[in-house]
Structure formats: structure tokens, C-alpha cells
Amino acid sequence: MLPLVSVLTPTYNRLGELGELLEAVSRQTYKRLQVVVVNDNGVPVEPVCSLYPELDIRIVNLETNRKHVRARNIGLQYADGEYIMPCDDDDLLVPSHIETMMKHIEGADMVFSDAEIVNLVWQDGARVPAHRMEFAYEHDLAAMRLFSTFVPSGSLYRKIVHESVGSFDERVYHYWDWDFFLRVSEKHRVKRVPIAGVLYAFSQDGGNLSGQLEDMKPYLNQLSAKHGLGELPTKNFFLLLEEPEVQNRRAGTTVLWDGKPFRSRYAAIGKR
After folding, report:
1. Residue 20: which H helix or E strand, with range?
2. DSSP code at position 3
3. Residue 204: its pLDDT value, please?
């Protein structure tokens, strides 16, 4: 029997986006999946999840809003898989992604893939790309201590790594993913997969957490102190990508997405 992969997704009041993620998961060529949807005290997600009966979906409803890092940690308690794949509710995976990651994790404990950063906009009940760009950088651990190019959505790791590194660190909040990558890298084998199998929803309008620079600074300082990273800038994400040190790490990748929307069954009944 194939190993079970648990897709771990916190969500909060984004039923349309969650529907598209579930649509993407339903199209995966790797079928032995569990989806753990942690509803962080938002509107009920059952109307979306019930439309995908072929998926093994475990809904965890939180009685209070615990924020996304705590929600992930709670979701881990309900993940039965030997492997964990974190995925934000507004990101997407190409159909071959999980199968590809399962092939590449042989000889490693965590793998992360390249991505496309996509500005997705709603059009006729589905999100379509207004702009997309490749996000592919060499896996250089020393350089990753200065600027992380680890995309947590769609990454895959053995659940057992939590026994040595602990859970996601809620204290660093905005930088939980960078912190997790560094902690795993200290004790485990990590590989990059040079395929853009993840569609990372991100726009320059400040709607993402990464646009809240002033709020982020204390957490960045805490991350730096924890790992001895020195003084790190809190620049806009897209400006950081233009830094010479980051540009020098750019790498080739394989782009798979045909640009067509992942129209969900939720949209098919006139919802968004």
C-alpha cells in the first residue's frame, strides 16, 4: 500500500479559495491522501468540503480564532499520514505535484519545490492569473539564512521529523516556515525539487501577511536571535528578490501549469 500523505490546511473565511484547493487535490495523480482542514473559527467549511466525497477530509473546527501557526499545530494532531504536506488555503498544486514530491523524497526527510508566484483574480467564479512569475532558486543553506526561498505550501516531509525539531514555532509567527526549514535542515536531509508544481497566491497590494512590514519586524528579530542570523532587512518581498545575492541564486525550473483555472464544484453551484 502506498504511504498516506496528509495535506494540512488552515483556513479562515475563504470558502472560494478553499474550494479551488480541494479541486486541485482531487485532481492529484497520487491518490492516497488525507486532507486536514483546520477551520480557524471562520464560517463553516462543510458546504465546500462535502462537495468532494472522494477525498478523505478531516475537518477540525476551532472554537476560537487561534491564528494560522497555532491552527497548523492543532491540525498536526489529526494528521494520520506518514508524510505531511502543508498548503495554504489560497495556494494551488498542479495535478502531478504530490506524486512528484513522493518520488523525490526518497533519500531525504523533507523536499520543497519551485513555485510560480501568481496574482490570482476572480473572474466568472474562478481565479485566473493576472500575473505569474517563476520562483526558482538554488538550495544554498548559507544563503537561505539570509533570505529564505523555501515555499512551505506543497513541501513534503516525514511526520517523524517533529519528534526531533518540535512543532511549528508560534512565537516567530510570520516566519514560522523559515524557522521550520532551518530547524529541519540542522538535523535532517532536505532537497529542492526543480519543478514549479506549486502556485503560490501572492499579490503586491499588501493583502498577504508579507506586506505588513512594521508588524513583522519584531518577529524577524526574534527569528534572527534564535538562529544567529544577524541583522536582517524587512524590505518588501519583491524588492528583496531584486537583491544581487538573491538574483545570483536564480535557477532554471520546469513550469507545468497551463494557466487554466481550478474551477471548483463550489463555484459550479454559484458560490464563491
Report:
1. helix 15-26
2. P
3. 62
